[in-house]
Amino acid sequence: MRKKDLQITGATIRIERLSKTFDEVVAVDNVSLEVEKGEFMTFLGPSGSGKTTILNMIAGFERPTGGDIYVNGRSIGYIPPFKRDIGMVFQNYALFPHMTVYENIAFPLTTRKLSKDEIRTKVQEALTLVKLQQYGDRYPKQLSGGQQQRIALARAMIFKPPVLLMDEPLGALDKKLREHMQLEIKHLHEELGFTIIYVTHDQSEALTMSDRVVVLNAGKIDQVGSPGELYDKPRNKFVADFIGETNLFEGKILNREGDIISIETNGVVRIQGLQQEEIKGERVSISLRPEKIVFLNDAEERQNIYSGTLKDIVYVGETTKFYIALEGGGEEIFLKLQNRKGVPKLSRGDTVRIGWDIDDMTIFS
């Protein structure tokens, strides 16, 4: 099948001061956001953060309490779902069990009253696209979870919606299949060009698939950025803690000297960091990713160097985590190393020397 047969023109989406209240509970609180044409944007956050509620308002399953949604400049916030021309893929796939795979995929075209010949051609194209061209006569119960997800994706794409919404679509799959499907969906998006809004609570999934990620917390947007921006430059403690693994410290600024600030943590450990414009006041939080910390021999130097006692070693397959109690205070820290040649042979109770540079940390007010 030629890619151009199912080529889709993505749409821009503008969310403007969007709010949703259920009784006295504010689920979405005055959210504004712009999604670019053809962008893969993920809503990421814990349960109750508002991500699915926003998705449902874009789809038309929930009416906003306030604000509006625009697709290619057209207001859609208060029109019925069937008039929005938006595709949707659900976590439970929502396939019709009494219909064959062919009939499931054909359903959106049947409701649009296309001819049988057109439907047949488009369904075969869609089946080829998701690599299931021999499965048209089967029923959903005869398919694996990954195959059902591909059929749900084909059905959502077949009428060429400019916007495709995906609500935790891989949550029911095992880890290996989920990772495989992440790449499948990412490659389909790159080939076909539609705009995707994807909802997940899995930060690894969000970083793997997205052009940009929206981190939601308690109905508000905490940060929007590329996966690299969110991981390396989180805007606040919540984003730093939610995206990946990190060491978090609380403390106060002792002095500022040029671009260097000295911080004393609550555990009475002195740390040097880089002054950043957004740091206000004297109380700060520090985020330090575990892979930024290294073991040092007596001759090696870093801008922050500490001795400590190795409290625990945890083997997690491709990496090992080392948990260390720092001398001179109550702080505990962990670092992470890839399991390859050259990893030091250490045991619990060993005294170790570790360090990191000032630009390895992120500091927030």
Short description:
With 365 residues, this protein is α+β, with helices and mostly antiparallel strands. It is 23% helix and 35% strand.
Strand content: 35-45%
- Assigned CATH architecture of the largest domain: 3-Layer(aba) Sandwich
What is the domain total for the residues? 2
Indicate the radius of gyration in whole angstroms: 25 Å
Distance between the termini: 54 Å
Under CATH, the homologous superfamily of the largest domain reads P-loop containing nucleotide triphosphate hydrolases
Strand order in the sheet with the most strands: 6-7-8-3-9-10
Helix fraction, binned, reads: 10-25%
Could you report the average pLDDT, rounded to the nearest whole number?
89
Point out poorly predicted stretches.
none
Query: Outline, from the CA principal axes?
Result: elongated
Describe the structure.
This protein has 365 residues and is of the alpha+beta class. It folds into two domains: 3-237, Rossmann fold, CATH 3.40.50.300; 245-364, RNA polymerase II/Efflux pump adaptor protein, barrel-sandwich hybrid domain (OB fold (Dihydrolipoamide Acetyltransferase, E2P)), CATH 2.40.50.100. Helix content is 23%, strand content 35%. It is built from eight helices and 20 strands. The protein has a six-stranded mixed β-sheet, sandwiched between helices. It has a five-stranded antiparallel β-sheet with strand order 13-12-11-14-20. Strand 7, helix 5 (175-192) and strand 8 form a beta-alpha-beta unit. Helix 2 crosses helix 3 and helix 3 (116-129) packs across helix 4 (145-157). The N and C termini lie far apart (54 Å).
